[in-house]
Amino acid sequence: MCGIVAYLGAKEASPILINGLKRLEYRGYDSAGIALLNGGMHVYKTRGKVSDLEGLIEDKDLSGTTGIAHTRWATHGEPNDINAHPHTSPNGKISLIHNGIIENYAILKEELKQRGYVFTSDTDTEVLVYLIQDIYEHEKTDFAETVRLALSQVTGAYAIVVLSQENPDMLVAARKGSPLVVGIGEGEYFMASDAAPIVEYTRQVVYPGEEEIVVVSLKDGLKIMTIAKTEKTPYIQTLELNLTALEKGGFPHFMLKEIYEQPRTVRDSMRGRLNMEQGLVVLGGIQDYTRKLLNARRIIIVGCGTSWHAGLVGEYLIEELARIPVEVEYASEFRYRNPIIFEDDIVIAISQSGETADTLAAIEMAKAKGATILGICNVVGSSIARASHAGSYTHAGPEIGVASTKAFTSQVTILTLLALMLAEKKGSLAASRYYRLLHELNSIPEKIEKALKANEDIKKIAEIFSKTSNALYLGRGINFPVALEGALKLKEISYIHAEGYPAAEMKHGPIALIDAEMPVLVIATRKGHYDKMVSNIQEVKARKGVIIAIVSEGDDNVESMADYSIEIPETDEMLVPLLATIPLQLLSYHMALIRGCNVDQPRNLAKSVTVE
Ligand code: F6R
Asked: What's the CATH architecture for 453-596?
């Protein structure tokens, strides 16, 4: 979703800003723009990609050492040149970039219209920059205070950066509900939606808190105050992000790179947490909450999309191994249905980005009702991580491909560790099964490596089915969420309609869809409901459906029934999702590629969904 970059310093701003926008392209967007201060305010913006913006500014004077830039993911108003950011005040002296939604923009717009202002765009953002000009002219106060006064009239979510022609040595930024990070260099400052555009210049960063305003000035340095006007001491952190993690590393796409990273990322999720010598799982971040977890009335897992699917896998794991009741909720539904929450409930929020607006709002609501919140996030320092009482980072490294791959397997790894830790403390598992599972989990990275070897065979299957318009994914038990995840991966990057179903539900409706044109992907590994899956395969075959089966290695039985099969290594039933997901990710990748889709930036999608 919208990407923000800003620079204040002594260097030429435009290359830093354009490079920064490219680093944020993964977030998803439909237009791009830049504003530079060079005597006057120079604003260039266009519908389309950052490359289109580069084309637009090719022959322009881009000198200037202060500027802001933006990639917009449309909410209010269609993606076009006018609605693109930056938005500029009527007198042309103030420009603003914004990520989020100004919820009361219609009222503010009406008031400003009555005072004679004429708007040019359909956006909520333009209203804010007009309001800032109005206050600046009437209140005659300093610029940072003006922005504060304007924001105190705003409801909604925002990360903004404001550039003022009359205050060329400063930038004013603020955030509420949307992410923002400030980088501190030698006599220069950077601002961005995440650390990706900043890391190549400086590792010293400040993450402003909720409802905080940051003023960076070449004269006075960095200052933070709240919208309520309390001064804050900036907390400077050192980024651990590695620049090579933001590059494709020889792979044609980030998604493929991230699929192939999984042996390492799953290992990284377990590092220091799975102690094979002592036969223990230690999740340091949530250790203090172990008692609470063991005594919890229930665990409620909230998330969206792929993270919600990981939550469903977590439900099977925690209930089966630790025998604690688990409910899994779409964050967007949970937050609005006035759920019954008890003080002895534990809410686990799962989020790769740690910024998903619905998930954040869901945990804020549960926290207000007295629940304990644990976060499973990938992005360190993200809003959900900070809003949680405690949590475990997945340590999968930056995920740039919009379709989530390595984040999912890392989330499932953490949930597996959590289930095992609770099982051991509770004594709910026979010791032999517990130790077998620890050993199996420890060997999963090598098994993922093996599963990746099927890539060339999967590519051939993708070539056969690339023209299909529909696909059905079936799984049972813990592999049902894997079917959902496989279907989501296919639809989001190849635009093929795909549905995931619990295999037994097929006969309650979807079976009507089956014919010789319909590929049916089944997860039919030896462990877990094997005979039942075999029956489901027979039902599909009896209706001339085409079966692509994910099978345990050497399973000639299912292989002889299926039209196509993809082998994965044998493992415990509870760990199959960590392996069965791999070929489904690769299949989606190849299908999308053959169909000419933009694998890393699928249409309409945003990586970090910071509006509800
Ligand atoms: C799918 C995908 C999305 C995200 C969802 C939640 O591939 O990426 O469905 O899983 O938007 O995002 P996070 O995990 O950042 O909260």
From this structure: 3-Layer(aba) Sandwich (3.40)
